[in-house]
Amino acid sequence: MQLILRCDDTGYTHGFNEGIKAALKHQTVTHAEIFPDTPGSVEAMELLRGPVMAGWLSSAWHMHWWGRPCADPKRIPSLLNEDGMFKFRHDMWEFSPDRRKANPGKVSTMMDADEEEAYIEMKAQMEKYIRYLGKTPDISSFIGIAEGPIARACERVCREYGVMTNEDCRKVAIDGRGDWCPVPWSGHPGARYIRDSTIRNTQYDPLTWITEDQGNNLSKQRTMYVFHPGWIDDYMYEDFSFWYDYDRTYFDGCMIVDMICLKSARFRQWIIDNKVELINFMDAVNGTHLYQDHLKAVGSDLYMGQRLD
């Protein structure tokens, strides 16, 4: 099986960036989804510049709109709230296909955005990647929003800068040969929380889910596991209210658990024992072996060729 190991929300904060650092050290990340607008974004881009420019780590423009603008705020008033943050960070999820099906009639404030202002902000985000990451991201990961002014502005910027859209990349990379498979978070049977509690997902266990192949993924030709590894700091703790009920703050240890999983000797041995070929996103798109070439160059025990010799 070919496997993409994707680390999401990279650049959230300095503390959260420790997760991608650990995954890089253990060679258990092949694709990084990088925030452009959060407190740790510049640090993350500078950290990943070498691997991204070398081509063995693929990257994505991770658009959650959870931080502050990269453009001059005076030029994009329709996008911002009274605190100077993106106003639809609170309700953008209501516009995703699954939420719209569950809550028909709900409309995100994303639909009130001015397309030209969104274009200005997105160009500023892209220029930030070029400055600190060294290049544009390989793909745009636009979190399921497929219409409206934000989506149209995103498509314009992707075309202008030559960045593949998430949907285009999925079509090419899968092509009937596999499936994307996020590591289950709140949706899987082991992830439980008490409604009135301030602690969520106390039984989240991706390591067991993966190593016992509970998702029946080893039979697939290609798949992708999605992690959110990192430490939780005060900024993130306060920000969690936007992830769930919007009016309460939770502690969710999933990020720490993900980081432990990616550092685990058990996870590493599972990759080796099952002859899992680690690839990055663009390897899947282009049929290359850049991540395996990197593993070979550094003498890693995760290099597939070493296990086949």
**Taking Cα atoms only, what radius of gyration do you get, to the nearest Å?**
19 Å
Uncertain spans, ≥5 residues at pLDDT below 50? 174-196
The helix count comes to: 13
CATH architecture field: Alpha-Beta Barrel
Order of helices and strands: EHEHEHHEHEHEEHEHEHHEHHH
Ends apart, CA distance between termini? 17 Å
CATH C-level:
Alpha Beta
The proportion of residues in beta strands is 5-15%
Would you give the CATH topology? TIM Barrel
Number of strands: 10
CATH homologous superfamily - what is it? Glycoside hydrolase/deacetylase
Mean pLDDT: 83
| Total domain count | 1
Q: How would you characterize the largest beta sheet? A: 8 strands, parallel
Task: Please tell me about this protein's structure.
The protein has 309 residues and is α/β, with parallel strands linked by helices. It has one domain (2-308): Alpha-Beta Barrel (TIM Barrel), CATH 3.20.20.370. Helix content is 39%, strand content 13%. Strands 1, 2, 3, 4, 5, 6, 8 and 10 form an eight-stranded parallel β-sheet that branches. Strands 7-9 form a two-stranded parallel sheet. The chain starts with a strand and ends with a helix. Mean pLDDT is 83; it is low at 174-196.
